[in-house]
Write a structure and sequence with these properties.
0% strand, 12 helices, elongated, mainly alpha
């Protein structure tokens, strides 16, 4: 099976499994999504969705967020891990959004990546899910599966993103990155992996990683 065939099989299988694609992180607008994605670094989406209602009850916009102290934010988000860095990031980016963007999240990769604690992946998620701009954020699931499926060499997430964007049609990126995340969680996890349940890897996967 060549790469073109693999890509077509992946797209068809994911569309069959996930015709409706839920957004993993609960949010109501670009700002709350930005904060939620920032909190999700090295933390599960389930945990983030438990913590954000507590934070957003006090501050769900930049103007209310800067009324809190960094220590107050830190205390609320502590269960998400990395709270010293994340609390400073949330407070700092809220200040910048007020000062430079009238409290609005900019629809611009470069502007987003200049915000404190916002990297390329976070910016890509916001651009994709909040603004509908084609992007292909690569998380651990996508990085793992692109390697398992023989569609990337597993060298690093930057290479995986380049390969995904090269192989998959641009108009499908925003759906596909979410579909692959859900598939990775449900059928092709890092631990407790059962090849018999993982129809995509069983069909298109690298021979070297198959039992």
């Amino acid at each position: 099976m060549n790469k073109k065939d693999k890509v077509e099989f992946v797209i068809k299988t994911l569309n069959d499994l996930y015709p409706e694609i839920p957004i993993p992180l609960d949010h109501k607008d670009p700002y709350t999504l930005l904060v939620a994605v920032l909190l999700s670094a090295q933390c599960t989406d389930v945990r983030v969705n438990q913590i954000t209602p507590l934070l957003f009850a006090k501050a769900d916009n930049p103007y209310d967020m800067v009324k809190l102290s960094v220590e107050e934010i830190k205390a609320i988000i502590k269960p998400c891990g990395l709270s010293p860095m994340k609390s400073k990031g949330i407070y700092g980016l809220s200040q910048i959004l007020i000062e430079k963007y009238n409290g609005e999240v900019p629809c611009d990769f470069e502007a987003l990546e200049e915000l404190p604690a916002v990297g390329h992946k976070t910016a890509s998620v916001v651009m994709s899910q909040a603004f509908g701009v084609p992007a292909f954020p690569v998380d651990t699931h996508i990085h793992r599966l692109m390697y398992r499926w023989g569609l990337s060499n597993g060298k690093n997430v930057q290479q995986t993103e380049k390969d995904a964007k090269r192989l998959f049609p641009k108009e499908l990126w925003n759906d596909l990155h979410l579909q692959i995340i859900w598939y990775g969680r449900e059928y092709s996890p890092a631990r407790g992996w059962n090849l018999e349940k993982d129809v995509i890897t069983k069909t298109v996967g690298r021979r070297s990683i198959l039992p």
